[in-house]
Design goal:
Blueprint (H helix, E strand, L loop, with lengths): L1 H15 L17 H28 L5 H4 L21
Length: about 90
Amino acid sequence: MTRLLCSLALAATLIGAPMTARAPAAYDDSESHPLRLAAYALHPVGFALEWLFTRPLHFVVSNPGLDRVFGHVPHENPFGGYEPYEMDDES
């Protein structure tokens, strides 16, 4: 009897409180393109390679003293002579 009451209470809760299913972003047909589907599989591999290989390698070759050995030069500012705009956290 207790099991029946618990099952009914659970069913009433699940039916009485429906939730709408929502996707985190809008879907369009470009997301079903075969190359997009391949990119979904390859992107995590590239992300992992960047964080596990290229970023640590850049850290090593850009250290002062080692930069001359490896020929590393600082990158120029993509904003020219201007500093990028930083938003205030107060707004």
